[in-house]
Write a structure and sequence with these properties.
Shape: elongated
Number of helices: 1
CATH architecture: Beta Barrel
Low-confidence stretches: 222-226
Number of domains: 1
CATH topology: Porin
Length: 229
């Protein structure tokens, strides 16, 4: 299945490059604003914290690469993006950081609305690399998602070989509460014991600066037709 998908993607790139009016590829990165997450304590012996804690949004970062082909005012843009994501839960005795690292592979379709400005949207496959919640006991692991799909939409503007890109990345995983067990007492306790992780989904707003390593529009003598891979 993976081999067939890889072959299909390469074939699409070859077809796009040979028929496109312009194409480019390069690197991108920048800050991310992370949102989401909700935990509710379960009452035990009458003293356990039973309130609901909404996660505080945090800034983190992302980076990756892109390949873009253009047909008049339309564009196709596959990307690979690594995202470091983090929010903070303000538990009764001390805060706990919820961290998630993932790799996304979006396939974006766009349209040039004016001059250097494009709008775009598309699906993204996301692979969770690592997930952790500070203070969570190992016997109740954190589950980050129940679907590998996300959706992205945004706007970007080109300035020569540079681009400024603002987008929203939303996971398509559904809300699926499950039980976790957090260190409660002692110096390292968080003041909450058994709890429901009501919503473990994290979404983000990404602000990227992209640099085109190669841009066919700046190389009029480029090869016509054929596959570059």
């Amino acid at each position: 299945m993976n081999k067939a998908l890889y072959t299909l993607v390469i074939a699409l790139f070859c077809f796009s490059a040979s028929n496109a009016q312009e194409f480019s590829f390069g690197l991108k990165g920048g800050p991310s604003y992370i949102m989401g997450g909700q935990i509710t304590g379960r009452p035990g012996g009458g003293t356990d914290f039973s309130g609901t804690v909404e996660a505080d949004s945090q800034f983190k970062y992302h980076g990756g690469g892109f390949f873009e082909v253009r047909f008049n005012k339309f564009l196709i843009r596959p990307e690979v993006i690594y995202s470091a994501m983090e929010v903070e839960f303000g538990f009764p005795t001390q805060p706990s950081t919820y961290s998630l690292d993932k790799v996304s592979v979006p396939l974006l379709l766009g349209y040039n609305v004016w001059g250097p400005v494009d709008i775009y949207a598309g699906p993204a496959y996301q692979k969770i690399i690592e997930v952790s919640l500070e203070g969570n006991e190992a016997d109740q692991p954190v589950v980050a998602q129940n679907s590998p799909l996300a959706a992205q939409a945004g706007i970007k503007a080109a300035f020569g070989r540079f681009e400024l890109d603002l987008r929203y990345d939303r996971t398509l995983a559904t809300k699926e509460p499950y039980i976790i067990n957090i260190v409660n007492g002692g110096q390292d306790g968080y003041g909450i014991n058994t709890a429901d992780f009501d919503d473990s989904r994290l979404n983000q707003i990404l602000l990227s600066i992209s640099f085109k390593i190669f841009d066919s529009a700046a190389n009029p003598g480029r090869r016509k037709g054929g596959c570059y891979f």
